[in-house]
Amino acid sequence: MLMVAGCALVSSVVMSRRIGESPSSAAFAVITSASGYVRVEGDVRHPGIYAVSDNSMTVDVIKMAGPVRSLSRLRDDKTVARPARRGDVIRITFDGEGKGDVGYGTMSTVERLALGLPLDINAMTEADFDYLPGVGPVLARRIVMYRQKNGGYMAERDLQNVDGVGYRTYGRLLRVLQPADNAKKIK
Questions:
Q1: What residue ranges of the chain are covered by domains with CATH 1.10.150.320?
Q2: Complete DSSP assignment for the chain
Q3: For 118-176, which CATH class?
Q4: Which residue of 4, 115, 124, 151 sits 20 to 30 Å from the alpha carbon of 53, by its own alpha carbon?
Q5: Tens digit of each residue's pLDDT (9 = 90 or more) over 81-110
């Protein structure tokens, strides 16, 4: 009888500790305030994809990844003062003397689709368009050719002018594309 009571007491104490513990508020804030993702690579201890908010700066994201050397050794401090944008690839490299550089790129279409990030219609290749729903290699080629014939720039609404893009395909594409900077909003 005493053993049963002892086991019950121990299990209630253990269960109350689990319930009483709460996750770190900082980790919770990062997850809930994330508006996008960036990938950090190069001379960092923890390369990978990081959730960022709209007001995250490049220097903050690099610090999360753990640079292998001090950021005070960067050749150009202004490069890390820029905001980290959704879909950025931030690459930090240090040379033999310990001086560092920060470079920027963009995530691939596959990465952006997997993370739910919008795509830039003016930066996409034929292969990128081929990944999209309702677009095959033939339609991808037509979209890129249309863009090239019209000065290398197109707004999302211009997709309606591409032979083979019907109403349904147009709707699917709009869901994954980000609005072009100078394009007027479609009502």
A1: 118-176
A2: -HHHHHHHHHHHHHHHHHHH----HHHHHHHHH--EEEEEEESBSS-EEEEE-TT-BHHHHHHHH-BSS-GGGBS-GGGGGSBPPTTEEEEEEE-TTS-EEEEEEE--HHHHHHHTPPB-TTT--HHHHHTSTT--HHHHHHHHHHHHHTTT---GGGGGGSTT--HHHHHHHHHHBPPPTTPPPP-
A3: mainly alpha
A4: 124
A5: 888 888 899 999 998 888 889 999 989 888
